[in-house]
């Protein structure tokens, strides 16, 4: 994880929306708006059983879990519109990540789904791994939230703490900044740290890409690569 | 924008609630609480067609846009109670900014609108300009959120990243702190920065005032002057 000079770290964060084991949950915004449940249409087969008329994305009919049918409705860290590709057993096997495939016909004039996402707050508890695969060696957890903070829905203001497992999660680095999904790399500021990172300063570059092996989860995974440069 | 010593910056942030091109959206709190829709009365003519029973401030009857009728219900960065002055075509032309004019008669005993705003989370994507007018030269964007964080509704806890356009938004400064609307000036701490502001430390003073030329937007604009002192 640490670079040769001890001041550079790299790790991968796995953000999973929907599926049977989501690590991120949208708690405000369009997903919680009952009035829109009848107005936002989805391309088949993703449109069935949307739970948005229950206020928050809980589906009691599915043991309280967010199910695959929700995924296209959520805004994640990927941000790229694309076609979701599913296997025959309805798992995501590749394709687009981030914003959903939608029928736009019934949206209010001038409104896009991305615009409607502006303001959506998503809380996460994501695994950090050494390599980019979800099954790679676990190095810690990242907890925090991101808020869709541009009017076109392509930016997320992020506040998070990355906690490292090695010494019982005492070592942590906290970050704040804006993740812009329209550029290949965004920068977050280091707010501070604890444990061996106490008084940390510096920044991180973050890059998102679709999960290399989506089959490991039935949710919609976005992998975020962090490269941290400490002063 | 930069001061003579290169360590002081000033810029102006334009926060627009409501209207056809809002830059800020309240996503939690009273505006999203349907249970209060029947309880919060408004002085005419501002009380018509409040969308609060739709969960988030979307008004499908107005092409999905937040309209002027919403504005008096939102809590912004201005914070001053005052009379909203409207022209004959229902545009704001001056007067109060911030908390609305209300009939208090039907509020629960001991409750004021300001108190009810406590906890409202507002996400913003505001333009930063060199001068105080909305049409002044654009220097960047500020994205983040503010939360009404005093029981009397006069303070906003703010977390934001100011991103500067010059080098493709790589240069940024992130701030955290409490904006107290009852004093003329508040201070925010610099959490850090990126690009040429990496490892930034210091603080900013912020002052709010009503838009100098409200006619440029049909929303309710608050101008926030930032003066940043970097160590």
From TrEMBL, chains A, B:
Belongs to the plant dirigent protein family. The lineage of its organism: Eukaryota, Viridiplantae, Streptophyta, Embryophyta, Tracheophyta. It comes from the Eukaryota. One of its GO terms (cellular component) is apoplast. PANTHER family: DIRIGENT PROTEIN, DIRIGENT PROTEIN 24-RELATED. GO terms for biological process: phenylpropanoid biosynthetic process. This is Dirigent protein. Signal peptide: none annotated. Dirigent proteins impart stereoselectivity on the phenoxy radical-coupling reaction, yielding optically active lignans from two molecules of coniferyl alcohol in the biosynthesis of lignans, flavonolignans, and alkaloids and thus plays a central role in plant secondary metabolism.
């Amino acid at each position: 994880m640490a670079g040769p000079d001890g001041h550079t770290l790299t790790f991968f964060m796995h953000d999973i929306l929907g599926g049977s084991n989501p690590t991120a949950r949208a708690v405000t915004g369009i997903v919680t708006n009952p009035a829109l449940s009848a107005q936002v249409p989805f391309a088949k087969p993703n449109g069935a059983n949307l739970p948005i008329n229950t206020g928050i994305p809980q589906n009691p009919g599915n043991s309280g879990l967010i199910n695959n049918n929700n995924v296209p409705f959520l805004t994640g860290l990927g941000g790229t519109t694309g076609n979701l590709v599913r296997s025959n057993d309805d798992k995501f096997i590749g394709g687009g990540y981030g914003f959903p495939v939608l029928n736009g016909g019934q949206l209010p004039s001038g409104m896009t789904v991305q615009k409607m996402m502006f303001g959506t707050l998503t809380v996460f508890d994501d695994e950090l791994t050494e390599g980019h695969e979800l099954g790679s060696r676990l190095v810690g957890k990242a907890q925090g939230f991101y808020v869709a903070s541009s009017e076109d829905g392509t930016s997320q203001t992020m506040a998070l703490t990355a906690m490292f497992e090695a010494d019982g999660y005492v070592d942590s680095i906290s970050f704040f900044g804006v993740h812009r999904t329209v550029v290949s790399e965004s920068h977050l500021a280091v707010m501070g740290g604890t444990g061996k990172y106490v008084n940390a300063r510096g920044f991180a570059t973050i890059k998102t890409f679709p999960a290399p092996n989506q089959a490991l989860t039935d949710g919609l995974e976005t992998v975020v690569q962090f490269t941290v440069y400490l002063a």
